[in-house]
Write a structure and sequence with these properties.
Blueprint: E1 10-11, E2 15-16, E3 21-22, E4 33-40, E5 43-48, E6 53-57, H1 60-64, H2 74-80, E7 100-102, H3 103-108, H4 110-123, E8 125-129, H5 137-144, E9 159-161, E10 177-180, E11 192-200, E12 207-211, H6 212-222, H7 224-232, E13 234-239, E14 246-251, E15 253-256, E16 259-263, H8 272-278, H9 281-298, E17 304-307, E18 314-318, E19 322-326, E20 338-345, H10 347-355
Parallel strand pairs: 7-8
Antiparallel strand pairs: 1-6, 2-3, 4-5, 5-6, 8-18, 9-20, 10-19, 11-18, 11-20, 12-17, 12-19, 13-14, 15-16
Length: 358
């Protein structure tokens, strides 16, 4: 058999034991095994005909755990890669979808933290309760959970969402906020979205969430022509408050192979003028019909999780999958406030926290 010491075997001269990476880029494809010494723990001891010797991993622990660390389960690995086969699409909220995790349990126990993150990746959202609830505590929470670094953006590393009289974004008024995903105009939209309630004392303002993957699958199964439009037509988005101006063109539904991978949908930043310039009337009409079908599903109360968050509640949302919104709330009454904080983490850094074994 021909075995590459670079890509398969771990020769001490050719493979970094601490980096877990090959040290050279030489072509070893013509080097052959000359001797097999036997199995030790999770490795096969071998010698090659060029005089080198080393080990070949024969188990996941040998391949990814250096032979002594626990390795992540295949379920965790598949969830972290967003494989539809291990995700649970939901068209009605169940007790399992809205399962709540105690913050102290998750913060103090690495295995329980991984259960929390795996739940988030499986269902697209996960709830924590009894978190610290003072202003700016969200970043401290993420630091304590070792889910960093934070994802910076035009709203800042920590975005504070409360009522403003003349808002620069719909999130800062008190009207109903339609279901949407955040920042679809970004080249790489934020993925893991942490929504932390500091105070929610006003009437109304219930939050709600809907699973776009379930809706998209329904359209794919029942109206494939509309599904094709949602996966191929590039929708222009544009956000231009006074301080900045950002734009992009992307399909509503992005695929990874046959898997539904990411949805971009924020109806109040669709650039309708640019859409007129980009497509003919017939194409636009067909896309709007497909989009309307998606929106009706997303706004269907029967398909929606709705909760009024209380101080100390935190929701982790898959912004590539689960849309979020808010009911209208009162302002101007005596006392009371509604104060939320938002932070984003790149998906790969959440994946790291799930797969890394202590």
């Amino acid at each position: 058999a021909v075995v590459s010491t670079q890509s398969t075997g771990r020769c001490s001269d050719c493979f970094g034991g601490t980096s877990n990476q090959p040290l050279h880029t030489n072509d070893y494809t013509n080097i052959k095994i000359s001797h097999v010494e036997g199995i030790k723990d999770h490795f096969l001891s071998v010698s090659w005909d060029d005089g080198h010797s080393g080990i070949v991993p024969i188990s996941e622990t040998g391949a990814y755990g250096n032979g002594y660390k626990r390795t992540p389960s295949s379920r965790y690995y598949d969830l972290s890669l967003r494989k539809n086969a291990v995700q649970t699409f939901w068209d009605t909220p169940t007790n399992e979808v809205i399962k709540r995790f105690e913050y102290s349990d998750v913060a103090d126990d690495s295995d329980k933290l991984k259960e929390f993150l795996a739940h988030f990746m499986q269902y697209g959202l996960a709830f924590l309760f009894n978190t610290p609830q003072e202003p700016d505590d969200l970043l401290k929470i993420l630091y304590n959970l070792k889910i960093t670094p934070y994802w910076d953006n035009m709203f800042g590393i920590l975005s504070k969402v409360s009522f403003q009289r003349d808002p620069t974004n719909q999130a800062f008024n008190n009207q109903r906020l339609a279901a949407h995903t955040d920042m679809p105009y970004y080249t790489q939209t934020p993925s893991a979205y942490f929504f932390h309630c500091v105070a929610n004392e006003l009437d109304g303002g219930e939050s709600f969430w809907s699973d776009t993957f379930s809706a998209v699958k329904h359209i794919r199964d029942t109206e494939p022509d509309k599904y094709d439009l949602l996966t191929t037509i590039l929708v222009p988005f544009r956000q231009y408050p006074k301080e900045w101006h950002m734009a992009g063109r992307y399909p509503t539904v992005e695929l990874m192979g046959d898997d539904i991978y990411r949805v971009r949908d924020c109806c109040f930043v669709i650039d309708t003028y640019q859409f007129l310039r980009d497509y003919d009337a017939e194409t636009r009409e067909r896309w709007w019909q497909a989009y309307r079908t998606l929106r009706l599903l997303m706004e269907d109360p029967a398909r929606t999780v709705q909760q009024k968050l209380g101080a100390g509640d935190l929701v982790l949302i898959d912004n590539w999958r689960v849309q979020h919104g808010r009911n209208a709330f009162s302002v101007g009454g005596a006392g009371g406030r509604r104060a939320m904080e938002v932070a984003y983490i790149e998906w790969s850094h959440v994946q790291n926290r799930l797969l890394k074994m202590e």
